[in-house]
Amino acid sequence: MLLAEIISVGTELLFGEIVDSNAAFLARELGARGVTLHRKTVLGDNLERLTAAIQTALGRADLVILGGGLGPTDDDLTREAIAAALNETPQEDPHLLAWLEGLYAARGRVMPQINRKQAWLIPSAQALANPVGTAPGWFVTTGGKVVVALPGPPREMQRMWRDQVVPRLPLPSRALVHTTIHTQGIGESNVAELLGDLTRTANPSVATYARKTGVDVRVAASADTDAQARALLAPVLGEVRGHLHRWTWGEDADTLAGAVTQVLAGRTLGVVEAGSAGALCTLLADEPGFLDAAVTQDHRRLITLGLTPVTLQGDGLVSGSAALELAAGAREHLGADVGLAVVVQASGEGAGHAHAALHTPELQRTISIDWPGDPAQIRERAAVLALALAYRALRPDGGDA
Predict the structure, then answer these.
(1) DSSP letter string over 340-358?
(2) Predicted TM-score (pTM) above 0.85
(3) Quick one: 256-394 is in which CATH superfamily?
């Protein structure tokens, strides 16, 4: 088993000014290659703390990956920290220096002297080429362990990782396979109850995760070969699928909007939104068969789309009856085979109320939620609610199997 730790470097990450997407990318990459990730740490630009963190990580992990801190300025301290942690002295590498100076010369510029530190190496480090930036990485071997230093910009980091780091890593020989099942309309605790003891097994492992589109269940297995891992995974995966079939809408890279497109089976979908700021249309934007939608809170416009004054004055705009009238109007006025509508109270009194409705010649369904949050969360939940309603209502078994 290869144990890994990730150390993300940068005060801007520590204070939340930049989201640490690099660590998430690396975690996925490590997991896909059978590497066990034990910790992720975020540290500011402080030499003493960063040096101590590297020393501590090397005491408990086989692979330590540092992201960021490879720039030319005084607060870029990753090289200094690795050198200090290993008690080695960095020196300018003439080949790296010539490469850096050539980058600037090719652009008709003279390299600032501050960039010379980007040409440093320590005796235990190999330079990692950076074809899309000015910060070479480091691949360090020490005492049978590996320290990798990667640049902070995601475009540079990802390319260096795939092209320069992965081929050098002593990756485990064991194979890891996994499938993630997407569900909607059931809570995480309910999923755990349905799965019972399956969530307590080690290999295959079964884990639940709450997501914006519902609850995901990841089933993973490892073995000496890919075939053995898949054979180990198959019966448990089948059992999980059976328990959750009623609420499942896809697996792995599937999207909820894509699942709706599949159950539409070539039919067109018209959408009317009120109060959701186009959140539903945004989710559907890249799907075929999605017609131009009406996104408005103007009552006069909504009345032209099928909302009756009686419903508006009686039940109000944010009601199940209003959503159903607008879903019917989406079919008629947008010329669609299927109408879908969502009405939302995203702020003010009653914030969190949302209703969605689906309308076809044979089928009319509505669904409601009341879940407070900030306006963006409420709109997003309402859009997901509408997609989930469409998927469950239109799937061949009607979502009742």
Answers:
(1) EEEEE--SSTTTTEEEEEE
(2) no
(3) CinA-like (3.90.950.20)
